[in-house]
């Protein structure tokens, strides 16, 4: 009787072990076949980031000088390099800056650059996607990655938006951003800021520049 029970138990645990091993193998296979990932930007991504920021500037999504002024182009390239290598933004003299890449099939297709803001929160400085991959949700995945990393933290996240960045503004609104009036006179950017309703009273978080803001 006891022998039968022992044999039965051994058979049961053997079956469980086989199922467990099979699940592990399938999971490893899925992970190995996965072609999409979000990672830190590398030095070899500089040209990709540079090219897509210039394209965005040409289309009116970023500051026009980045595309039109040769010195600004040179400064942008060096800025991207220091962000990647030293986590430092030269244009705003801010430490704590990072560049994240959405990679598909081994190639970079979208970039998001995050840095400390003047409000002591964080600023989404750049989101840019390779033309053929635009409007397919890759930039949204990068945004979700950032927001999820700040979940449960009382952190302000801002993003400057130019008038033509309509898709970006819609994406931010879909994530809970709201517009708050701003006194900026710059006609190249929207005259509003986004902030969650419950935080409208904390205007000390808003600097005199057009931004999107969210408290997570």
Question: Could you walk me through the main structural features you see in this protein, from its secondary elements to its overall organization?
Answer:
With 216 residues, the protein is of the alpha+beta class. The protein has a single domain, classed as 3-Layer(aba) Sandwich (Aminopeptidase), CATH 3.40.630. Helices cover 40% and strands 23% of the residues. It is built from six helices and ten strands, in the order αβαααβββββαβαβββ. The protein has helices spanning 2-33, 46-58, 65-68, 70-86, 138-149, 166-174, and strands at 36-40, 88-89, 94-95, 97-104, 107-116, 122-129, 156-159, 179-181, 192-194, 212-215. The strands form three sheets. A six-stranded mixed beta sheet has the order 1-4-5-6-7-10, with helices on both faces. A two-stranded antiparallel ribbon has the order 2-3. Helix 2 crosses helix 4. The longest helix has 32 residues, at 2-33. The chain is globular.
- Following the backbone from N to C, one meets helices and strands in this order, namely HEHHHEEEEEHEHEEE
Total domain count:
1
Shape descriptor: globular
CA distance, first residue to last residue: 61 Å
Class inferred from helices and paired strands: alpha+beta
Helix content: 40-55%
> What's the β-strand tally?
10
Mean pLDDT over the full residue set: 74
CATH superfamily: Gcn5-related N-acetyltransferase (GNAT)
CATH class: Alpha Beta
Quick overview of this protein structure:
The chain is α+β, with helices and mostly antiparallel strands. It has one domain (35-215): Aminopeptidase.
